[in-house]
Amino acid sequence: MFVRLWHRSFYIHDLLAIGLLITLIVYLALPFRFASHYEYIDGSRIEAALIPQVTRNISLQEVFECRYVEILEENRFVYNLAHYHEAVHRQEEIRPGGEFRPEQCQARYSTAIIVPYRQREEQLHAFLTYMHNYLRQQLIHYRIFLIEQFDHKPFNRAMLFNIGAQVAAEYGFPCLVLHDVDLLPLNSGQMYACTELPRHMCSALDHWRFRLPYRGLFGGVVSINTVQFQQINGMSNLYHGWGGEDDDLYERLLAMGIDICRFAPEFSEYTMLKHKPERPNENRVALLRAAALRQHSDGLNSLVYKEVERRMHSLFTHVLVET
Ligand code: UDP
Ligand code: BGC
Ligand code: MN
């Protein structure tokens, strides 16, 4: 009896040891698969990291520049504020096309928020209500562009971002936030403005139990300067269906020697509204392998689409496109 028990515990210990050894080998071989620790910009350094840039038409209209230091110092958890979800408050402040700029001071940042979209009505409603309440407390100048795929081909998220970036550039926006419709920021201090380096904004997502699954994750919500987006030739137009296109964007940045950044986790919490998973693109791994090779021929310079309609909705600029 004693021997059998001993043998049994020896067997369990053995398995544990082998398991640990395998984990260690994988960790050493692929350190970036694990991102329990990642570098970030802490609260005291955020303001200095943001680039003051506005569209030409709004500069020098107000004498006093808006102050951002209090917003960053306060950095409140705002997702639990019921009135943020109920309705768009003081809607008269928002201009047709979903544009806002503070009246009492001059904004230091102008940001185009680009949302790729098709058939997510409930999420869109929640997004617009919450985001207009959320964004106005940041005292920035912003405009929401909804880029809707009109055709029935597989969804092409990256191509919709290319289109959105092009439209936003027409309106003179120096900073882009590429934003899934189902993600909502929880902390008031995740400034919707661009940093010198492209920024992964939703690094503490509830869906991932507030942890970053891998260091190269650059999807969900990211900010990037319009000029940088143009330098990397935008995103690939070839990802039809779910997955990989955000990893491709990360590869493009790497290939051009552009690193990414993140804010501290207490600024980067997001929630994802519930939905069924989309059908993965079978081709995504093969495409990703050649991301850097295709970068200069596949992107903004090869973008072909048809704009079906552009309409100024009270809460967003609606661009309906055929891909
Ligand atoms: N999306 C959409 N309709 C679709 C598929 C995707 O509007 O049929 C947009 C939407 O903005 C969504 C984003 O693409 O948030 C990313 O897709 P999804 O949420 O399915 O991917 P996840 O990040 O959850 O894996
Ligand atoms: C996919 C990405 C996705 C990530 C997180 C990766 O395997 O390629 O597109 O954003 O998983 O879901
Ligand atoms: Mn989602």
TrEMBL record:
Q: What is one GO cellular-component annotation here?
A: Golgi membrane
Which organism's genome codes for this protein? Drosophila ananassae (Fruit fly)
- Kindly give the SUPFAM superfamilies that the UniProt entry links to this protein: Nucleotide-diphospho-sugar transferases
What family does the entry list? Belongs to the glycosyltransferase 7 family.
Q: Where are the transmembrane segments?
A: 12-30
Tell me the classification of the organism that encodes this protein: Eukaryota, Metazoa, Ecdysozoa, Arthropoda, Hexapoda
User: Would you tell me the protein name for this molecule?
Assistant: Uncharacterized protein
Mind listing the GO biological process terms from this record?
arthro-series glucosylceramide biosynthetic process; carbohydrate metabolic process; glucosylceramide biosynthetic process; N-acetylglucosamine metabolic process
Q: Which UniProt keywords apply?
A: Glycoprotein, Glycosyltransferase, Membrane, Signal-anchor, Transferase, Transmembrane, Transmembrane helix
Q: Tell me the pathway.
A: Protein modification; protein glycosylation
Q: Which GO terms describe its molecular function?
A: galactosyltransferase activity; N-acetyl-beta-glucosaminyl-derivative 4-beta-N-acetylgalactosaminyltransferase activity
Which InterPro entries does the protein's record reference?
Galactosyl_T, Galactosyl_T_C, Galactosyl_T_N, Nucleotide-diphossugar_trans
Q: Where in the cell is it found?
A: Membrane
Q: Where is the Galactosyltransferase N-terminal domain?
A: 84-195
Q: Which residues form the Galactosyltransferase C-terminal domain?
A: 199-276
Chief place of localization: membrane
The membrane-topology field of this record reads:
Single-pass type II membrane protein
